Amino acid sequence: MGKSHTPPLAGYKSRPLFVSCQYGEKKSRIWATANRFHHPFCDEKDWNDGKDRYAVDIFSNIVLYSCRTRLPEDVLMVHRIRGQFSEFKSRMGMLYFLLDFTERFGANTRRLQRDISQLNSMQEEAKSLYLGQDFEGAMAKENEVAEFFGQVEAKAVKLKAQALVWVYLVEYLAVSGTVAMVAFATWSLMVRRRLYRAVKTTRYSR
């Protein structure tokens, strides 16, 4: 008996995972898959656990092709842009948390709020370029956003440090005042007391 030959899995070498065909007068497009559609890259809960980091790219290209929309030529650029969109959300959440923390100590964050508004406008412009499939323009705008974001974060950290200086100063004065009061009380009760002698009574004798 000869050795059993295991055919390659779908999606590898000459075995396509998806096949598309057209039918009808309007040339509608349909898809056939060699696997269940419950594939790791088709399941949203698996998109961010490392199973397939290009899951959204694959699925979005299927949708674009089905809608007869031009597919991106540089798929890695599109992937990086989408990653920067996610990173923007994470960084913005941390920035808002930092500003909220700083405001509790009485810091004025109006300038930073204006910068954040500008950041959001720049990000919306990048999204518009992305949706218009101007991926090079979107990438350039995202680079501008990342650079400006770094400047805003540096301002926020500096503002937090300035606000906390007053907190440290007040705590230092409070601790120093307490230590001084305790030292004065100790000196009054234990040291100063030795400088005085108790008055002795005398008896009158005839």
Shape field:
elongated
- Estimated helix fraction: 55-70%
Q: Mean pLDDT, rounded to whole units?
A: 78
Task: Please state the CA-atom Rg, rounded to the nearest Å.
Answer: 36 Å
Tally of alpha and pi helices: 4
Q: Find the count of extended strands (DSSP E, 2+ residues).
A: 2
List the helices and strands and how they pair.
Layout: E1 18-23, E2 28-33, H1 55-66, H2 75-103, H3 110-131, H4 135-191
Antiparallel strand pairs: 1-2
Helix pairs in contact: 2-3, 2-4, 3-4
Descriptive account of the structure:
This protein is mainly alpha-helical and 206 residues long. It folds into 2 domains: 15-71, no CATH class; 73-160, no CATH class. It has 4 helices and 2 strands. It has helices spanning 55-66, 75-103, 110-131, 135-191, and strands spanning 18-23, 28-33. Strand 1 (18-23) and strand 2 (28-33) form a beta hairpin. Helix 2 runs antiparallel to helix 3 (110-131), helix 2 packs parallel to helix 4 (135-191) and helix 3 (110-131) runs antiparallel to helix 4 (135-191). The radius of gyration is 36 Å and the shape is elongated.
